[in-house]
Design brief:
- The complex is a heterodimer of chains A (233) and B (329).
- Chain A has 233 residues and is mainly alpha-helical.
- Chain A has a single domain, classed as MetI-like (MetI-like fold, Orthogonal Bundle), CATH 1.10.3720.10.
- Chain A is built from eleven helices and no strands.
- Chain A is globular, with a radius of gyration of 20 Å.
- The N and C termini of chain A lie far apart (51 Å).
- Chain B folds into two domains: 204 residues, P-loop containing nucleotide triphosphate hydrolases (Rossmann fold, 3-Layer(aba) Sandwich); 118 residues, OB fold (Dihydrolipoamide Acetyltransferase, E2P) (Beta Barrel), CATH 2.40.50.100.
- The radius of gyration of chain B is 21 Å and the shape is globular.
- The chains are: A mainly alpha (233), B alpha/beta (329).
């Protein structure tokens, strides 16, 4: 019991200290995970919409790919990207490895399937009469997509929340392609791993508390958006 | 313009199998049948929302119109050009939902929503119109008014209208087809299908009735007189003198008297004619009378025997005017 209290008091001390290092880690975490969420949503939501709005073998194949993608372990995605960005790899010339850009790329790859899968699920959940009506209206693909996305607005917000949740809590991929370099590519999750390994439990817990606050703030905002869209009988 | 289609669903035709369905431009074909007969499947094949059909150039009103988030007016404008949207608004006005277009679509009643969807479907430019149960959500007092607007706005386009409602069928049809278990079992002029069902199956599904077209001759209070084939038929209805109209009444509403001078009691309609055909339907007998136009009557086997209703017999048929509806045609 004494041990836990001691860790907690260390953590609070670290939080009130809120040094420049912690500020930098928090800033990078927000930039990387929000960028990856935005990119993942921008690519994933239209992909999920396209998958859900038609029946063809190609679309079914994409749905399978998306469902697999949702379950891919982040370390594996990180490893794959590492191989591509490695000096001798196909995109080695870009020099992106161990930069925040590589971290954003890795997390975007993780966010796309989640955003697409949740969106497709929300659209597929519309009643059959909605699909029948959509056909009867003879709209263009773009108009149909816009109409259903507005219709399943809370589902789209859920897709954003799920994508953000996956990237902000993720540690494996950013660790591999970012390298957890102090002041450059260290984010909250990798920092927690680092501090824990060095038995700096108070600092690790402080970072954890900040991570939870970030997640709570973003999800609180998204929940408000969701409720706004849900006021329909 | 005449178009012919073979419709089959699924590929083995187990749900629906129709050969040589004929659609004419400027004709309203009503497909009548019990629930589960395959009517909606047929319409969806024609509309192309179900794969495997011909997907004709048609505006389509689904059985359960779906409204997306937004106002009724926003929903009504979906898929329409500015010009078509303004036409939809004028149809909505005629259907008494023009004032509701600003409200959230989900706040409309079933009947109001259906009328908005009808306005949208009829404002579309395609040469054919496919309507799935267009009057199903309408209250008794609104049905005929909505039907009249539907008929007028279809105009000279071809239409396929699906319904399981006898009255809707009688009012909306130029030609009528009866669909049972995915097969077309009878097709013909609407009065003929009602008064001369081809099989017991059709008789059971359609019921026996009289649908007679004519022109309104005079008006007497709430009654109008429909003139047809030298006969006057009095009934309840709205069409004004000179307009084309259609009288609808059940065969069970017709009372028969033997002889051509029967004492017809208080009934306003009293027609003299000759029995042309007698059909035994089991518990009832259908008697077809030629009184200038064909009239179908249902009597019990007992009355048929007492009145000696056989082909060639002279009879007087009477119907209370209150049992006859005269609708615009």
């Amino acid at each position: 019991m004494d041990f836990l209290l001691e860790v907690l008091s260390d953590a609070l001390g670290a939080l009130f200290g809120f040094g420049s290092e912690l500020r930098r880690i928090l800033g990078l975490t927000l930039v990387v995970s929000l960028s990856a969420t935005v990119l993942g949503v921008v690519a994933g939501v239209p992909l999920g919409t396209w998958i859900a709005l038609g029946r063809s073998r190609v679309r079914s194949a994409w749905l399978v790919a998306v469902n697999i993608g949702m379950g891919v372990p982040p370390v594996l995605a990180g490893l794959a990207l590492l191989l591509v960005l490695w000096d001798a790899g196909p995109l080695g010339g870009l020099g992106l490895l161990f930069t925040p850009a590589a971290m954003v790329a890795a997390q975007t790859l993780l966010a796309i399937p989640i955003a697409a899968g949740v969106t497709a699920g929300a659209i597929k959940g519309l009643p059959r009469s909605a699909g029948e009506q959509l056909e009867a209206l003879r709209l263009s693909g773009l108009q149909r997509g816009r109409l259903v996305l507005v219709e399943v607005w809370p589902g789209v917000v859920a897709a954003v929340a799920a994508a953000f949740g996956r990237v902000v809590s993720e540690v494996g991929a950013v660790l591999i392609v970012g390298g957890n370099i102090v002041g450059e590519t260290r984010v909250l999750t990798t920092a927690i791993v680092q501090e824990t390994r060095q038995s700096n439990f108070g600092d690790a817990l402080a970072l954890g508390i900040v991570l939870i606050l970030v997640a709570a703030a973003v999800n609180g905002f998204l929940t408000r958006m969701q409720l706004k869209g849900a006021n329909r009988d | 313009m005449t178009e012919r289609f073979d419709l089959r669903f699924p590929e083995d035709g187990s749900v629906l199998s129709i050969e040589n369905l004929t659609l004419e431009s400027s004709e309203r074909l009503v497909v009548f049948g019990p629930n589960g007969a395959g009517k909606s499947t047929m319409l969806r094949l024609l509309a192309g929302t179900l794969a495997g059909g011909p997907r004709i150039e048609a505006s389509y009103l689904p059985q359960r119109p779906y409204f997306f988030r937004g106002s009724a007016g926003y929903n009504m404008g979906l898929g329409l050009s500015a010009e078509q949207a303004s036409r939809a608004r004028s149809i909505a006005d005629r259907l008494a939902v023009g004032e509701l277009l600003g409200y959230e679509a989900s706040s409309l009643s079933g009947g109001e929503a259906q009328r908005v969807a009808i306005a949208r479907a009829l404002a579309r430019p395609e040469p054919f119109v496919l309507l799935d149960e267009p009057l199903s959500a309408q209250d008794e007092q609104d049905r005929m008014r909505v039907a009249a607007v539907v008929i007028e706005e279809i105009g000279d386009r071809g239409a396929v209208i699906v319904t399981h409602d006898r009255e809707a069928a009688a009012v909306l049809a130029d030609r009528m087809a009866v669909l049972i278990n995915g097969r077309l079992v009878q097709e013909g002029e609407v009065g003929e299908v009602f008064s001369l069902p081809a099989t017991d199956e059709v008789a059971a599904a359609v019921g026996i009735g009289n649908v007679i077209d004519g022109v309104v001759g005079g008006v007497d209070g709430s009654l109008v007189a429909l003139e047809t084939g030298g006969l006057t038929i009095w009934g309840l209805g709205g069409p004004g003198p000179g307009s084309r109209a259609r009288a609808v009444f059940g065969a069970e509403a017709v009372t028969l008297f033997r002889g051509r001078d029967g004492l017809a009691g208080s009934a306003r309609n009293r027609w003299v004619g000759t029995v042309t055909e007698v059909r035994d339907l089991g518990r009832l007998v259908e008697v077809i009378i030629d009184a200038g136009v064909r009239i179908a009557a249902l009597v019990t086997p007992g009355s048929q025997e007492v009145l000696q209703l056989h082909p060639g017999a002279g009879v007087t048929a009477t119907v209370k005017a209150a049992a006859v509806r005269v609708n615009p045609a």
